[in-house]
């Protein structure tokens, strides 16, 4: 509530209607009260909020993996936050409010190592996914001892399973996903050098119906 000490022509302090009375450098001043922004979201802001909600839910399911996968790209942010911005920019389909993850455009790592060729996934054992590959290109940094990171994400559960297993020259690896049984999973693979210094660009392999 505003107060006037000497009538309507005098200076006042506080708020009367949408007018705020105060002082600045010893002078009595009045200004308009700021409008509330509680319901001031524009359509563009609402769209960004919807994109963020979908992308952040997916990122949270593989947070620790993304911290590793984008450690070299993240500047003044975590690898997971970098991945979040990448997904919002490159890997969402649909329109507000029904955005969906475009899994085939999702990257889970970026680095200097080449990935492998001839990638395939299958599920012939209950609750397990078999990853196979035929070989890899080389830019002199790749080594037979590079460790494979196998990744599977189940949209129905919003759950991601990943594991470091095998090596580049093993040409195969198995990922246990017992909770994915009877559901569809999206799969990726990447590699980390044995000394942990280098990581590969991830490759999306495709979907698999988990036995």
Please give a structural write-up.
A 4-stranded antiparallel beta sheet has the order 1-2-3-4, with no helix packed on it. A 4-stranded antiparallel beta sheet has the order 12-11-14-15, with no helix packed on it. The chain has a 3-stranded antiparallel beta sheet with strand order 8-9-13, with no helix packed on it. α1 crosses α3 (79-90). The radius of gyration is 27 Å and the shape is elongated. It is built from 3 helices and 15 strands. The model has no long low-confidence stretch (mean pLDDT 88). With 211 residues, the protein is α+β, with helices and mostly antiparallel strands. 18% of the residues lie in helices and 35% in strands.
The 3D shape can be described as elongated
Mean pLDDT: 88
Q: How many E strands? A: 15
Q: Can you give the helix content as a percent range?
A: 10-25%
- What series of H and E elements makes up the topology? EEEEHHHEEEEEEEEEEE
Number of helical segments with 4 or more residues: 3
Cα end-to-end separation:
69 Å
Low-confidence stretches: none
SS-based structural class?
alpha+beta
Strand order of the largest sheet: 1-2-3-4
Instruction: List the quaternary state of the chains.
Output: single chain
Radius of gyration: 27 Å
Q: Strand fraction band? A: 25-35%
